[in-house]
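Example S7 (structure tokens).
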């Protein structure tokens, strides 16, 4: 296994690990502008009675919004290196988790473990397997009501002090986190109810509910990219990040939307490097001939589905 010191000098690591405010501020601004424009246009066409155009705009907006979550911006905020101010990173991590109906207390536990023990038997994230059957595609391309009701159920239970999760890691290991889970669940429900009320007042009941369900709508692109991070690489878990994680070379706009998570091998090697510095680290690895698992979007044409089929068969065995 290659040591980090064989990849970067101390000065290089120090420079690449330095957070800057300008890149993430621009990224956030572009997200806000994009969503504002799409939502405004969707409201206009809805009120004009063009419901098909409204549906298309709502789906596009939702597909982009998915990248605010843990397969995107919120994940990077969790690592605390997006902005220079650590408290700001922390607050934004919590807020973006709430927007996506995610309880941050669970992710704090599962993701830290995932980095320390990638592909361990109880690493829920690396072993997570997304089904892609016909019915699943219907939900992934429209509104995944299954995920909505499941998330709502767990939030309700968490809010009354019952520590349950759809993540299959050992809940007994959470310890004092149980109180945090209850607190976060209650705050998520309050925020989401306030958002629902706001959307209904602004757009009316039908459009309001559709916008409110955005975190569960058009999830397919985000799901595919998230699944590609480690799929088919469990056999190389002892080889370190260069073996168990995959880099996807994406168009610049998509990489920015994904908050650099396509550089997943690079991220696992140096989780303390902000996402906007990962392209430089990627270039360094390529020049040294160290990157073993580099793909592009063509990965989803054949290889991804071969790996997915193998996982289906192994789980059915």
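Recovered sequence:
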């Amino acid at each position: 296994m290659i040591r980090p010191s064989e990849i970067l000098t101390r000065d290089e690591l120090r420079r690449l690990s330095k957070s800057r405010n300008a890149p993430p501020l621009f990224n956030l601004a572009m997200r806000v502008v994009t969503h504002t424009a799409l939502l405004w246009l969707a409201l206009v066409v809805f009120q004009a009675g063009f419901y098909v155009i409204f549906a298309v705009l709502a789906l596009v907006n939702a597909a982009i919004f998915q990248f605010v979550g843990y397969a995107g911006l919120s994940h990077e905020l969790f690592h605390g290196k997006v902005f220079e101010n650590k408290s700001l990173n922390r607050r934004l991590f919590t807020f973006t988790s709430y927007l996506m109906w995610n309880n941050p207390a669970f992710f704090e536990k599962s993701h830290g473990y995932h980095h320390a023990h990638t592909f361990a038997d109880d690493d829920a994230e690396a072993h997570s397997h997304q089904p892609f059957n016909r019915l699943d595609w219907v939900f992934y391309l429209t509104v995944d009501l299954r995920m909505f009701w499941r998330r709502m159920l767990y939030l309700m239970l968490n809010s009354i002090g019952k520590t349950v999760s759809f993540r299959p890691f050992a809940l007994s290991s959470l310890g004092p986190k149980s109180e945090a889970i209850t607190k976060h669940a209650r705050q998520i429900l309050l925020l989401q109810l306030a958002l629902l009320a706001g959307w209904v007042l602004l757009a009316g009941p039908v459009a309001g509910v559709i916008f409110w369900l955005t975190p569960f709508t058009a999830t397919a692109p985000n799901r595919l990219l998230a699944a590609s991070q480690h799929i088919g690489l469990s056999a190389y878990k002892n080889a370190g990040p260069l073996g168990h994680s995959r880099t996807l070379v994406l168009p610049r706009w998509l990489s920015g939307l994904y908050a650099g998570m396509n550089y997943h091998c690079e991220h696992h090697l140096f989780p303390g490097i902000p996402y906007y510095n990962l392209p430089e680290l990627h270039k360094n690895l390529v020049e040294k001939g160290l990157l073993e698992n580099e793909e592009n979007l063509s990965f989803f044409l054949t290889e991804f589905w071969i790996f997915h089929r193998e996982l289906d068969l192994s789980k059915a065995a």
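Notes on this example. Residues 4-316 form one domain.
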